[in-house]
Amino acid sequence: MKSILLTSTALVAFAGAAAADGHATPGIGFAGEAELGYNDDIEDGFYWSADVDVTATAALDNGVVATATFGLNIVDEGEEGLGNPVTSSDYVLTVEAGSSKLSFGDVDPVAEDRAGLVDGMEAETFNDQDTHLITADFEGILVGETEIAGFSAAVSFGVDGEGGNDLTGEDLDAMQVYVSGSFGSVDVEFAYQEEFGPTPEIYAVGVSTSVAGADITVAYADNTAVTSTGIQISYPVGPVTVGGYYTMNDGGSDDYGLSAEYADGPIAVEAFYDVADADNADTSDSYGVEGSYDVGNGLTVLAGYLVNDESADSDAYYVAGEYDLGGGAELLVSYAEDEGNVGNDEIGDPEYLHGTTVQVSFTF
């Protein structure tokens, strides 16, 4: 792999050449949110947090824009009360010119983030941020992207200039590539991951189109140990959209699933049934139904019931009410149960806490 010094020099040269042609117009923006809540299933009962998102932008005279974003976080640590230190996270530096962009920091690897193939594809095991930033001890992710002749192309690397990453010792490693575009009414995508430490090389391709009102996707992926071929179809019938997929995993198990989504006026309901192993459907299926009803005057009622037979004590359910207080404030009251959830959080799609919760949140 080429040294990170080369990449750093290119970044400096790119931004420096732009600055030489004109002056930058700086701007700094802030946005934030805060929450205070009580939950009867956590040790101290009360919890709180606050986050401030900072965006600094410099628009250069020749059309180049440099942007730095990061978050400032205050989280309840339990022992120190409100005296916890402020931490920063999610730092990203971006230099953009026309249809091309170069980003560095806490960004997603491109194949893992963008590939939209078919559900149940066991070969689609692209490295995510945990592998890049934690396991390999990378300092950040470098992403370059551009648009050429109607196609979008992106490449990403894990970056570590201090002796290389922990798995292979390279400064730039764990490359992923993603390309997407259209040929008439047919959309195509290609994703690639190079072999990185114990994780495999992966090739994946997907093709999507619409036929007689139905959206159809066909995809193929190969990660050396498993090859996956899948098809996914969705079709709207009035306010209901029905869908299904079937994936054959050579070296694994076949997966399939059905779903239905209803949205009409104040009512929204989603139901699904998934089987992770077609030969053992009784012990590998998961299903559920979740819905919401907009009562009016800012009040929305939500409820859900979920079952996952792959784990013991898998039944989960929740009921909740969310009330818009106006001005970016919201009141939440919820009750959720999921004994199979070790952390007792992120229950259902709304990701509620286990037990009874009363929370007020503010957006600034």
Automatic annotation (TrEMBL):
Signal peptide: 1-19
Record flagged with keyword Signal: yes
The Porin domain, residue ranges: 8-251
SUPFAM superfamilies (UniProt xref): Porins
Gene Ontology terms: cellular component: membrane
GO molecular function terms listed in the Swiss-Prot or TrEMBL record: porin activity
Keywords linked to the UniProt accession: Signal
Name listed for the protein in its UniProt record: Porin
Organism: Cognatiyoonia koreensis
